[in-house]
Every structure is written in structure tokens, then in C-alpha cells.
Amino acid sequence: MALIEVENLTKQFKREKKKPGLSGAVKSLFSRDYEIKTAVDGISFQIGKGEILGYIGPNGAGKSTTIKMMVGILTPTSGKVTVGGIVPYENRIENSKRIGVVFGQRSQLWWDIPLRESFSLLRYVYKIPEKRYRENLEHFAEVLDINSFIDVPVRQLSLGQKMRGDLCAALLHDPEIVFLDEPTIGLDVVVKENIRQFIKDINQRFQTTVILTTHDISDIEKLCSRVMVIDQGRIMYDGTLNHLRNAYGSDEELVIETDGVASGIDSLHELELSNIRYDKNKIIVSYSANCVNAAQIMEKVMQTCKVRDFELKETEIEEIIRKMYKKELQQEAVR
Amino acid sequence: MRLYLEFVKNAILANSTYRVNLFIRLLNRIIELFIFASIWKALYSGAAETTSNMGVISLNDMIMYSIISSGISVFISNNLISDISDKIRTGQIALDMIKPINFKAWQLCNVIGTNISGILLELVPVLVIGGLAFGFRVPEWKYLILFFISLAGGIAINFLITYILGILGFWFLEVSHFERLLQDLVKVFSGAWFPIWFFPKVLIGVSGYLPFKYIYFAPVSIYLSKVSIPGALSILVQQLIWIAVLFLIGEVLWRKGTAKLVIQGG
Fold first, then answer.
1. Predicted TM-score of the model (pTM)
2. DSSP one-letter code for A120
3. Residue from the list B14, B95, B101 with its beta carbon closest to the beta carbon of A106
4. Domain count of chain B?
5. How many Å lie between the alpha carbon of A175 and the closest alpha carbon of chain B?
6. Close Cβ partners of B46 (under 8 Å, ≥ 6 residues apart)
7. Which of A23, A228, A312, B211 has the smallest number of Cβ neighbours within 10 A?
8. Residue B206's domain spans which residues?
9. Residue A335 binned pLDDT confidence (cut-offs 50, 70, 90)
10. What is the dihedral of CA A153, A155, A157, A159, to 10 degrees?
11. Statement: residue B20 has pLDDT above 50
């Protein structure tokens, strides 16, 4: 049995259909129309121990809803979830002992007291043995530089410090599974890198299973072995990142700024490109990364004119998903 | 067990950092006390005593009532209703539910801690200033002991009631007038400022079926020895019964509320 098993999971919400304007407001005093919104629509998957899974999708796709059901704070409308053999929302306290959660937009730390006190409280909450507690704190200090702000009240911390604090709080009790919901949102590059390194580290050392939802594709690239894409409540893709990129996300756009007005560069036609466009002093080249790479294009352009600047636009995750949704009927989304 | 002690300590610490807040609360209480003393003096307009639906009450009684009531509110009153309903509305409750702790017990520790932190800076000044301004009366030791026990009961009952009103937030996702109505009802029938002695007969009857009078009215009337010893003991028993009932209601509501939980965000 896999560590996490999800079978035909569905979650529906009843939303009030609000009618516009004054007459609508008056009408709703007497009768209300409800519509059923299906956030998660009969999804199934399994997650094994030690996996780092990237769970992605556009806003409102159902990511957070799925996570909340796995964590035990939301009850499904139908279907089954088991985490480590138990049903999370039926055994909330038991489940809580084995998991760690970081919600990127909300902190679980105690606001008014120093970070150290939050950790100390958590030690008693999870009944962490003294020795293990000290070891973990030392480890956190080493990798995430916690000691530089551990005595500051949480409300005075910067976003990056709070995030690191939350991450430590989630991992303090050595959970088997860690749910990270947008953990790097709003963070600078250095902190992001530290956090990614930290996650990789604990995964390798302790076989901690990590489920990561994010909009930052470089998080996925640097950490995840497996990717699941959800859109409108359904799993669109479940497989490796490479396969995802190759199948759906290879289109890139290279915008080259030249010295002087750019015009027809014949040598470019030697390459297999989707489109070339000239706009004053810019050359916009669209191509598939499976056929051509940016270096080849740059080489051809630099042979003909002087290049001032360039920008490489890779396909965004939203774009990939949009494409996937359209191609859904043609390609099979399996591992 | 150690965990809950830590929570209490934590609440004391958190509260102690807001010194200005404590001072303003104290000021508030003192001003309220003087206002009510003036009101009672005016209402009595020169008479030393008056007859109510429940016996003879003197002006001195009423002034002591105000002082004691103000003093014990340091222990009894709490912010639980707004704290809990805010947690539910902002979704913070979700994070609390992910921790393997008993939510109710945790909130109780916060309330105890917050109220302990008020002992030095609120309770003592109120009793001292009130006593110096209006005189102070201490009942005989039997009544004093019964008073302290009934005070514990009052704290428990108010905690349970505010807890219940707080978790009603699971059902009322927007601030509802129904909730405000309930809160005001509690305030009136708890006898915090206006004792049930002066209620019209009908309302005295109604208050007999409600638990609210056991929050302020019961302990203070014991302190003022307005009930007999057997009467006081019977009050303690009734408090226990209400505590059991309210505890059960709280548990049931929590279970239903968390099962129904609808959290915003996708």
C-alpha cells in the first residue's frame, strides 16, 4: 500500500448565486439560489514514501482543496483518502502527528512571542524528545541561518524569515509527510535557494515525503521527481517533469534587441523555426526547444548584426496547462 | 499536562508585552466603577435601603456589588467570542486544527493566562481604589470559601458560553445580528452590573432557566451573604450541572462545526 492513496476523490461546494443590483439583494432576503461548484472531481492517485511531488495547476484548479482533504481539515463529498493507512479527517489528531504543513500565505507561528518560544511550544505539542529537538534546531540553524533571528518576535520578522521559521516549525517533529503550499511565494532568490536545498536535504536524509504546490516552475525543476497537473478539478497529467516539458512545454520565444533596425536575416531560415517577426530593432523568434536551441539562433543573428540585449521566454506553466487541456483528447496523460 | 502549563505561561507573556493596553483596561474599570456608584447613589436618592423582588438591598450592598463585580470580571471576562470567530472567518482555524492538540483546552489556557496577567495590574488596583473610595466589606469565612468556589464555577460557565458563541462562527460566516443578540442577552442576565434582585418578576423567572446568572450574580450574592448557606450550596450544585450541560453542548457543536467546515480558497 502506498503512503498516500486517493481514490475517486470529489469535493463540491454550495455557493450562493448572488443576483446583481438592488432588486437582487431584496430577492435574496426571501429566496436564495445555490449553485454547486465542483472543486475536485473524482481524482485518483498514489504517492510513495520518499517522493517529492510537485502538484501544480492554475489558480482555482483544486490544488489547495485536495491538500486540505489530505491534511484532514476538509471532508470530501465522496471518495476516499488514506494517509499512512488512516483517514485524515476522521483521525485528525493522529494524522497531525505524522505530518507537517506550511501554508505560504499564513503562518502557524505564534505572533507575539519570539520564534524560539514558538518552537518550544511545539516541542510540547508534539512531545519531541529533548535530544531530537536540540539536534533539529542545530540543523536548522546551520542550513537556514535561524539563529540570527530566533529571538525576535514573529510579527517583526521579514517574509523570508517567517517562511524559514514556518518551515522549521513544520519539520521540528520529524514528520513523515510534509505539505508545502506555495512555500517560496514572495521570497528573494537567495532564500528560495536555501529553502530548496533544505527540502532536498531532509528528503534525502530522512526519506521525508514532500508534496509541493507552487506556481514557480523552477521550484519544480530543482526539486521534483514527479509532477501532477490539476485543472478544473481533474488530473491532467501525472508523470515526470521532463516528459511534461517535452510533450507540452517546449515552445520558447527569443526576443533579440539589435543595434539599428532589424530586418530579414536569411540564415535564420536554415533553422526549423515556428515564426520570425521583426519589430523596429527587435527580432522575435518563436520555436520549439525540441528542434532548435537558443544558442543556435543567437549564433546566426550575431553573425549578421550587433546584439544589444536578449530575452528568453520559456513557456509558462499556465500556457502548458492551457495547451494540455486543449490537447486532452489527443494525448494520453499517463506516466 | 506540561503542554497546557506552557500555553498558560505563553499567554501571560504575550499579554505582558502590551502594557499600555493593561493600563487602559484598568482605567476603564475604575471609571466604570465610579459611574455605577454614582448611578446607584442617585437611584437610591438618599434612602439607605430599598425593597426588591428578592429582599432588602442596601445602598452599601449595591456599592460593594459594583466593586466585587468589577474585581472578579478580571478573571471572568474574556475575548474568546471575537478571537474564535475571527479564527474561523480568516481560516486561521485550519492551522490550529492541524496541530495534535485539544482546541478547547488550548483556548482555556489562553483565557486563564490572560486573566492571571491582570491580577497585579487590574484586580488589585480596583479593589484598593474601590475600597478606599467607598469602603470594603469582607464576609465571614464560610461565605468567603463558598464565594471562591462559586467564582471558579462562574469562570467555567462564562468560558463555556463564550466558547460556544465563538464556534457558532462555523455556521454564521458573516457577523450576524443573532450572535450579537445572544451576547447582549448574556450580559443582561449575567448580572454583571445590574443584579437580578431588581429584575421584574417575569424576568427573574426567565433567568431561573438560564445559566447566565451563575456567572456574576451568583458569586457576588454569595459574597454579600444575600443567600443562606444551604442556598449557596445549592447554587454550587446548579453551577456544576450547568457546566456539564454546557460542556456537552460545546463538544457536540465542535464536532458538527469541524465536520461542516468550509474554508475559503482553492
1. 0.79
2. H
3. B95
4. 1
5. 12
6. none
7. A23
8. 2-263
9. very low
10. 150
11. yes
